[in-house]
Amino acid sequence: xxxxxxxxxxxxxxxxxxxxxxxxxxxxxxxxxLDVHSGEIYALLGGNxxxxxxxxxxLLGFIAPSAGSVRVCGIDPVTEPRRARAQxxxxxxxxxxxxxxxxxxxxxxxxALADAGQGTDRRTDQSTDRIEPALQAVGLAAxxxxxxxxxxxxxxxQKTAIALALARDVPVLLLDEPTSGLDPRAVxxxxxxxxxxxxxxxxxxxxxxxxxxxxxxxxxIGFLAEGRIEEEQQASAQSVRFDLNALHDRYTHxxxxx
Amino acid sequence: MTPVHAxxxxxLKSGRNLVALLLLVALSVAAVWSGSVQVSGQxxxxxxxxxxxxxxxxxxxxxxxxxxxDPGYAGYYAFMLTQDPPPALAFAAMGLRxxxxxxxxxxxxxxxxxxxxxxxxxxxxxxxxxxxxAFVLVYLTPxxxxxLAHDLVTGEREAGRLRLLxxxxxxxxxxxxxxLRYLLVVIALGLPLIVGxxxxxxxxxxxxxxxxxxxxYCAFWFGLALLLGSLLRASTTAAAAMTGCWIVLTLILxxxxxxxxxxxxxxxxxxxxxxxxxxxxxxxxDIPKSETFERFFSSHPQWREKGQFxxxxxxxxxxxxxxxxxxxxxxxxxxxxxxxxxxxxxxxxLGYVLxxxxxxxxxxxxxxxxxxxxxxxxxxxxxxxxxxxxxxxxYLFNDRPFTRADFNQxxxxxxxxxxxxxxxxxxxxxxxxxxxxxxxxxxxxxxxSGVQ
Lengths: 258, 452
Fold this sequence. Notes:
- The structure holds 2 protein chains of 2 kinds.
- Chain A is α/β, with parallel strands linked by helices.
- Chain A is 34% helix and 24% strand.
- Chain A has a 6-stranded mixed β-sheet with strand order 5-6-7-3-8-9, sandwiched between helices. Chain A has a 3-stranded antiparallel β-sheet with strand order 2-1-4.
- Chain B is an all-alpha fold.
- Chain B contains 19 helices and 2 strands.
- A two-stranded antiparallel sheet of chain B has the order 1-2.
- In chain B, helix 10 (204-231) crosses helix 11 (235-264).
- The A-B interface holds A 57, 60, 62-63, 82-83, 85-86, 88-98, 100-101, 105, 108-118, 123, 126, 161, 174 and B 1-3, 5-6, 9-10, 13-15, 159-161, 163-173, 449-451.
């Protein structure tokens, strides 16, 4: 993991203030406020239509918000999308890379595209200085590295996508429903990966439906409903980090605690 | 690894893309080879006919030329060879050379009954046309482009990779992908053409203009693919839409256009002129010879004083009758030629809006194998025929014997100078249409965002 890009700007790595957005007549975000600091894992929970995907789209610079501001490491993704994207790695839901390429080739391909945008001349042997350590870090068996993704399980694909994010070595990680469809063992392995990211001072924003997964790994959990954070909970320093029962009630009856 | 290397790896490791490109290479090579074989075949025919012609002429000389040789018989039996050797770029675009005669033996009698004397083809066999580079370019290359580009964006969206791709800081993914595919397609088409052109010693400018035409035509189809890919959300819909465009633009509209042009500009057939001339000649037997001579002398006044002869038959009258037959259908010949030129003009104009027709027009003009090339050959035959007639007339009208020395003075046909040219307006229009589609495609792609 050479060339690590540390988030050196003051303040949170992800900063969203009073974010509002509409799709034609339909308002999706109503004044969302959210920040994620380096080395923190933030789980954004919400049901369908709560605005999770729109939040990610705003961070990626895919949409121009109707009002409010979004900053990734202090950079506005709307006005400077390339610079902002150079600071983050995004792992979409239902990871789908190129089936006819191997895991190594897939990472190499996406790294080449990402490096071009970062103005980085990394023409050294990627397999030795970035790709293989990333593949090792995600725990993908070495004998699978040079096999086409067509034969991979969902967990293996997820690991490959996470390896790509790690190889990019960026200060912000955006995860869209990262544990969706993973078996319990793969979820545990995934959580270990996020621990590694936290240790590396990466700011992680994971958008999920999965309360249990969020409880297991997140440092903070925000409940997104009707386009704003209705409630936020910080993990305690105790062995029981969150009160799962209370969170469950909050999640399934959003109006109760509001 | 640079982004270009990465895109090349992605493209060439895809079985479908690789097969499409290899297929295009194979088709292009096969087309150039097929065209070259046809050109060689035509050259061999010309050489064989030329050899047989010499034997034929030697026999006629033996029989008809001598101290008491009759120029009428000599001119009657001495068919002279005219030939239109394949132009250097004919291997790439055979045009009308598969149907129109490229070897014609003419004598000093009526030209119009000889000019359309060609082999009879089985129309069903001739219907598919020739398999040449121009065919691969205009009809088959768009299908390869459809295979390579129909799902450029939609495929990524369907596979769930679009957001991931767009989340990367590097821009220009689509630009690199399109340019890489575009270059590979142009190279797949161009390399065999260049090799064929080198082997045929074709002019560099003509070859370069053909390559430019191919590049523009491919740009049009890639632009269309990008435009449809940016407007439609499903790969199958995009593929169906592009295939529909291919059917409409290369098959239906050109066919309809040709039908409309043919209906709007009626033109007979060359064989009609042959029959009309023949009828005029046959009628000449039934009218007074003085009448025939009068018509002949009005266009050939220099022989007016030489029209007398004894007996019922004289070759000078016979040759005059044939020439009068030609002159009798002269207006029909002009009308026929005018109609064909008008059709050619309208077909060229059709090519301004139909890129396939435009590309065909350009490459056939460059190869000099189109209707204009055929006219140029016919004109050179007409010029030679006139020379031949005027060679015999002094012998016929002065009642001079036709000796072997005279026989050896019979004019020989010199092949026409090639009339190939660049259809500048067609090329500019193709450039315009290709640039428009490329712009619209690029603009459509630029609008693609990760929002789904």
